[in-house]
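USER: Please consider what follows.
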Amino acid sequence: MLIEKRMSEKDSNNTQLSLPVSESRDHIQGPPTAAVTLVEYGDYECPYCAQAYLIVKEVQERLGNKIRFVFRNFPLTKLRPHAYQSALAVETAAAQGKFWEMYDFLFKHGQSLTDANLKLSAAKLGLDVNKFDLEFLDRIYSRHVDEDIQSGEESGVTKTPTFFVNGDRYDDSWDLDSLLSALDEASVFSWRETNQ
C-alpha cells in the first residue's frame, strides 16, 4: 500500500505529457504545424468538462490554425460509474469516422448517459448501429481508452479536465481569458524557439 501511495504521489507530481501526441492514435483538430498544441484529458459526464468544452470551442474559433487540439479519455469511474462506457462509445464511433461528431453530441446533450442513450446517439449521428452495438458490447476499443487513462495517470492527471500546453501540464485557471493568455504566451515562446 505504501508503494502504491508513493507511485500515486510521484505520478501526480509529474507535469509533462508522458505520451507524445501522435497523428496515428490521437483525435486531433488543427494542423500539425500549429504553434500550440492543447491536450485535454476529459470525461464526457463531467460537468466541468462540459464547461471546458465551450471554452475550448471558443479558443479554437479565436486562434484558428494557430492551435492543435487533442482530446484524450480520462473517465472518472469512481465519481461517475458509467463514464467509461461513454468514452468507449466515442471510441467506437471513431472507428466509423465520427469521433468529433460523437464528442460534440455528448458534450452538448448532457452528462447522464446510459447504454441506450449512447446507442440512440450513434443512430442520430448516422452510424451503422448494428456494427456500433457489436463493437461497443464487445468492448473492441477499450484498449484505446485504457491507454488514454494510463498516459493520463503517468502525466499526473488526477481530475478532469486537465490540460497540457505544448506538453506541459497547465495547472492555472482554464477560464477563457486565462487559457487564451497561456496559449498566446506558449505560441510566442514556440515561435521564438523555431526562429532562433
About this structure: Residues 176-194 form the longest helix (19 residues). The domain at 11-175 is CATH 3.40.30.10 (Glutaredoxin). Strands lie at 27-29, 36-42, 67-73, 162-165, 168-170.
